[in-house]
Amino acid sequence: MNPEEIDGSNSIQQLACNAREMLLPSKSKTVYEAAYREYRRWYWGKKINCTTEDCILAYFNSELVSYKSSSLWSKYSMLRSTINLNEGVDISKFPSLIPYLKRKGEGHKAKKSLTLDRENVNTFLLKANSSYIRSSWRMQATGISFIGDHEY
Q1: Which residues in the chain show pLDDT less than 50?
Q2: What pLDDT does 104 receive?
Q3: How many angstroms separate the CA atoms of 93 and 75, rounded?
Q4: Is residue 31 located within the same domain as residue 86?
Q5: Its domain of life (predicted)?
Q6: Do 95 and 143 belong together in one domain?
Q7: Which one-letter DSSP state was computed for residue 146?
Q8: What is the pLDDT of residues 96-113, one digit of tens each?
Q9: Domain membership flag for residue 6
Q10: Nearest-angstrom CA–CA distance, 121 and 124
């Protein structure tokens, strides 16, 4: 190889490395990397050589056994992305993993989020300390702006 080819391959490797760094969602990149680090810590502790279907199933069944269904799917998504990125292994192709996650979700009842309706907001505004209300005139909560004396 001549020096120009070496320079070209290094710059291509650098460009590819930069592109890979942008593949994880920027807002949650640290969470994804933390999930991958936890998996790798477990992986090295078990003296495992490569990520396989049995390895992933064992990890989910031992380390994540107390997680709720939605959290398991979240971990799966994070590990799917990071393992594929770092090891080149696509865990979404493991035939037993998705049925395992679906089975773990059977009977799971999602909690419904509490929401405020007009009556709740009016009750709060009427009962709240007036100095607190004055300091919160520009408060924005759940898409409702409280500015001045408006009837809701």
Answers
A1: 1-6, 138, 140-142, 146-149, 152
A2: 86
A3: 16
A4: yes
A5: Eukaryota
A6: no
A7: -
A8: 999 999 998 877 676 777
A9: no
A10: 5
| Dihedral of alpha carbons 19, 20, 24, 26, sign | negative
**Which domain covers residue 121, as residue numbers?**
113-152
Within this chain, do residues 93 and 135 fall inside the same structural domain, yes or no?
no
- Residue 141's DSSP bridge partners are 144
Distance (Å, whole) CA 121 – CA 24: 39
Q: Is residue 9 part of a domain?
A: no
pTM: 0.64
51 and 94 in contact (C-beta within 8 Å)?
no
Give the type of residue at 21: E
Q: Which of 48, 39, 46 is nearest to 84 (CA)?
A: 39
- What does the pLDDT read at residue 133? 57
Helix axes 53-62, 29-45, angle to 10 degrees: 100
- What is the amino acid identity at position 126? L
Structurally, the chain folds into a number of domains equal to 2
95 and 127 inside one domain: no
Sequence-ordered alpha helix ranges (H) in the chain = 3-21, 29-45, 53-62, 69-87, 97-104, 118-127, 130-135
Whether 128 and 87 share a structural domain: no
Tokens 């920027």 locate to 26
| Pair 35, 100 in one domain | yes
